[in-house]
Design a protein that fits this description.
Structural class: mainly alpha
Number of helices: 2
Strand order of the largest sheet: 1-2
Largest sheet: 2 strands, antiparallel
Helix content: 40-55%
Order of helices and strands: HHEE
């Protein structure tokens, strides 16, 4: 995925990049406080069909 390509919508790219930066900061803060990865990282698994599967977020749209 090319986030900065002009045809992809600059505002969407900026939103996605900021979302990822914020998640990285949240993750670092969580590790500093708890000494381990966030549950969404720690419990992350590949499903048999190669897609993302995580118990705590099952059925939820995490990008909404």
């Amino acid at each position: 995925m090319i986030l900065a390509h002009p045809g992809n919508g600059a505002s969407l790219a900026a939103y996605a990049k900021q979302f990822l930066r914020d998640k990285l900061l949240d993750h670092k803060t969580y590790i500093d406080k708890h000494g381990e990865d966030m549950p969404e990282i720690r419990n992350w698994k590949w499903s048999r069909d190669g897609t993302y599967k995580e118990k705590a977020l099952a059925g939820k749209d995490v990008c909404a």
